[in-house]
Design goal:
mainly alpha, ABC transporter involved in vitamin B12 uptake, BtuC, 14 helices, about 75% helix, globular
């Protein structure tokens, strides 16, 4: 696949995102026809658009942006095509924070409790990650620290499930962990979007450092890249963006893994050039997946996190087979 110009790629992804956004506002068990769109303020279906579909669509866009740009940045930093936002363990820590609010019965007491618990877990994850990796660690140490943090958080979630005081608490925890954009409100949008924007902006500042890292740690340092600062910016950016996403949607996997691989052949080998297109592609993939789960005929809507796992699992396997063939 040949490299395309950056403006053309970004423009194409933007147009595709606009089309999918309109489709997301229309699609569902109750379809919104064009006649309802033209009858602003009078058609009762506008309540569905504004109160249900619009927050869901906005969250789908920004969660996709967070996961896409985080995945591209982590793959560039670690020089590992199998890296994704979950590799740092921050997503798992955010999930653990949210699960604890459900475990102790506070998660449904007020709308803000669960997302605040998730963000607190994500922030704690950033702090622990930087403590475990040390101030002058290599990429390998940084990744290993993330894997340890991920294991600890996953164990905590499993323990909470095992010791949950009531079946209702177990059901709430499982439903939230599976990841979904359904039944999200304007309050969720107001909570998550500012953090995602801040986190994504921090990640975008690492573009030059990620390009330099293609020469290795020593080569990047020789070009004047401050590796400690880059690692800090990456941890904070990914932590805030993915933590805010997990806080309102639960865990939606594989978006950060898949989208950089879909876009990389179109932009070339520069990790820095991959960040913005991957952010837009992440939004496209997330919105497309959310529309698909609404259109699947079933009595209960399929969770978006489950759908992404069904798609991402075979993709992940194909990548592993491809890597084995290239290294054989």
């Amino acid at each position: 696949m040949s490299v395309v110009s950056r403006p053309l790629l970004i423009g194409t992804l933007t147009v595709l995102l606009v089309v999918l956004s309109i489709a997301s506002l229309s699609a569902g068990k109750i379809w919104i026809p064009w006649s309802a769109w033209l009858d602003v303020g009078n058609d009762p279906r506008w309540a569905i658009i504004l109160e249900l579909r619009l927050p869901r669509t906005i969250l789908g866009i920004f969660v996709g942006i967070a996961l896409g740009v985080s995945g591209a940045a982590l793959q560039g930093y670690t020089r590992n095509p199998l890296a994704d936002p979950g590799i740092l363990g921050v997503s798992s820590m955010a999930a653990f924070g949210a699960v604890m609010t459900l475990y102790i019965g506070m998660g449904t007491s007020a709308a803000w409790v669960l997302p605040v618990g998730a963000m607190a877990g994500g922030i704690a994850g950033i702090g622990l990650l930087l403590m475990l990796s040390g101030s002058a660690s290599s990429v390998l140490t940084f990744v290993l620290a993330g894997m340890i943090l991920n294991l600890l958080a996953t164990s905590g979630v499993s323990l909470a499930l095992n010791l949950a005081p009531t079946p209702w608490a177990v059901n709430e925890i499982i439903n939230w962990i599976l990841g979904s954009l359904s039944d999200r409100s304007v309050q969720d949008v107001r909570f998550a979007v500012p953090f995602i924007v801040i986190g994504a902006a921090v990640i975008l500042t690492t573009g030059r450092a990620l390009d330099a890292l293609t020469l290795g740690d020593a080569g990047a340092r020789s070009l004047g890249i401050n590796m400690e600062r880059t690692r800090l910016l990456l941890a904070v950016g990914v932590g805030i963006a993915t933590g805010a996403s997990v806080a309102v949607t639960g865990i939606i996997g594989f978006v950060g893994l898949v989208t950089p691989h879909l876009i990389r052949p179109l932009v070339g080998a520069r990790p820095g050039a991959l960040l913005v297109p991957s952010a837009l592609a992440g939004a496209v993939v997330t919105l497309a997946g959310d529309i698909a789960v609404r259109l699947i005929p079933s009595s209960v809507e399929l969770k978006l996190g489950v759908a992404m796992s069904v798609i991402g699992g075979p993709f992940f396997l194909a990548m592993l087979i491809s890597l084995r063939r290239r290294t054989a």
